[in-house]
Amino acid sequence: MISKKLQEARDYEKKYLAKDNKDIRPLFHLTGTVGWINDPNGFSRYKDTYHLFYQYHPYCNHWGPMHWGHSTSEDLIKWEYQPCALAPDEDYDQDGCFSGSAIELDDGRHLLMYTSVEKRQDSDGVVRDYQQQCLAIGDGIDYEKVSSNPVISTDMIPAGNDLHDFRDPKIIKNNDTYYCFAINRHPDGSGQILVYESKDAISWKFNKVLDRSDNQVGRIWECPDYFELDDKKVLIVSPQETEGKGDNIFPGFNNFFLVGEGKEFLDFNRQAVQPIDLGPDFYAAQTILTPDGRRVMIAWMQNWETVNFGNDAHDYYSTMTIPRELKIKEGHVYQTPIKELENYRKCEVKHSCEIFEEQQLAGVSGRVIDMSFELSKVDSEKDYLFTMKLAKNDRYETRVIIDSRRKTLKLDRRNSGMRYSALSEREFPIDIVDGKLKLRVIMDRFTLEVFVNDGKQAASMKIDTDITADGITFQSDEKVNIDLIKFELSDLN
Ligand code: FRU
User: Is 209 helix (H, G, I), strand (E, B) or coil?
Assistant: First the structure.
């Protein structure tokens, strides 16, 4: 049964899609049908198609009562909009259907597991969120919330822990058991991951605390994921209020790979904390295993700290990242754009030359590009400060700056047309050995993603620059050799 609230959201989407003068969007980075999106939800494969849902407020470009928007794809590059999947239409989720995940059941149905939010007044008179885990089961388009919701209620939080931060269930099947990984707040005020188990995905019991911050890895953790990558185990968490540490853990909202080991499925001994993406716009990553065995991750290309600036520039707000394949080498997780992107490459342009004064390279411009290059010193004694400017015209530019002496990469969108100062620059350490560096740059109109040294590091940044600014220039204070290959990307509509 489609509720009135869900029907309203679907009608609103239909009306928008029928409109002629729709706004210009990224070509292969997913946005919601209309309005606001945040976290990816329910990233899953169902009946041989990829499904991606997302936190969604169709009615305006700001966060509001959360629905689940829905898109499908055959290759994770070209997306098709599907009707809104969930609306906050029950008493227990009247204040929002928060983030969650999805899985195909053995009987061929698609199960969505999400967090219901209901505001209740406590005995001290304060109104607080009650967050519980719920299910909706369907056929890939229409989903019915189950009558036993919430299937994991606040009563099932182990005694002594916080009763209000309890959300973002990730459902995973291992052998014949379903597990649900949900975030919660330990009495010390920081995040922890609670694990529940079930034989039928409907009735659940508490199993264990998988890992916790202990106030070392940010405060509350959001949006967990958990998987094996070769001989390691990876727990993804998105901590709020992280303290800055060293040069590559920035304060604020973060997203980490917690890399560890353990014999049994739920044994997790954390060995390392690796920031996933060093740009200003990356949060709430979720992964999927493709049929050919690749672990692929997608995230929200945004940061909560900047969500209330420039929201009305388009008739949608926010984008997902490009899906990224994950690999692990010597305990470090590498990420590269999903290989399916290469099917859309055309118009190859190659250059092998020296860069010194600011210059354009013939055929290298545009706002939808897949470009890779390698830099090396011309004079082995001389370090360089290399600047690439993108989305450039007389008025605007976005800079990627590589400093071979300090061994850093900086993303700088101060002059991209943004009118607020928050998170306009990000600089982080990179490996530059003997002056050599490899970079891959993916631009999709309003998004920029860079992958350093075959994906050892990645950084994502949105820009709202006028689409006509499409120049690209290169400059270096000491001569460098560049070996560059650039493609346009086509047939994406
Ligand atoms: C993370 C998050 C989740 C929550 C959702 C609400 O970005 O705060 O923890 O479920 O967004 O939209």
Answer: strand
Prior bond to 150 cis, omega within 30?
yes
Active-site residue, 139 included: no
d(CA 25, CA 29): 9
- DSSP states along 103-115: EE-TTS-EEEEEE
Report helix, strand or coil for 16. helix
Q: Are residues 275 and 375 in the same domain?
A: no
Top mutation candidate among 37, 86, 95, 99 for ligand 1, by most atoms within 8 Å of CB: 99
305 and 169: one domain? Answer: yes
Q: Which residue range(s) make up the domain with 287? A: 4-340
- Ligand 1: residue of 36, 39, 113, 306 to mutate (most ligand atoms within 8 A of CB) is 39
The CATH number covering residue 389 comes to 2.60.120.560
d(CA 285, CA 276): 9
Averages of pLDDT over each 10 residues, the chain, 493 residues: 96 95 91 97 98 98 97 97 98 98 98 97 93 98 98 97 96 98 97 98 98 96 97 97 94 97 97 97 98 98 92 92 97 98 96 98 97 97 97 98 98 94 94 96 97 98 96 98 96 78
Catalytic residue among 39, 93, 165, 168: 39
End-of-domain residue from the set 340, 355, 388: 340
So what's the pLDDT on residue 22?
A: 81
Please tell me whether the overall predicted TM-score, pTM, comes out greater than 0.70 for this model.
yes
Q: Tell me which long-range contacts 18-23 makes (C-beta under 8 A, separation of at least 24).
A: 22/315, 23/314, 23/315, 23/316
Of 282, 317, 340, which residue sits at a domain end? 340
Look at phi and psi of residue 422 and say left if phi exceeds 0, alpha if psi is from -120 to 50, else beta. beta
Residue whose Cα lies nearest atom 8 of ligand 1: it is 222
Please list, in sequence order, all residues whose beta carbon lies within 8 angstroms of the beta carbon of residue 56, skipping any fewer than 6 positions away: 32, 35, 36, 37, 66, 67, 68, 69, 84
Contact 270, 211 (CB under 8 A): yes
Q: Element (H or E) spanning 206, and its range?
A: strand 205-212
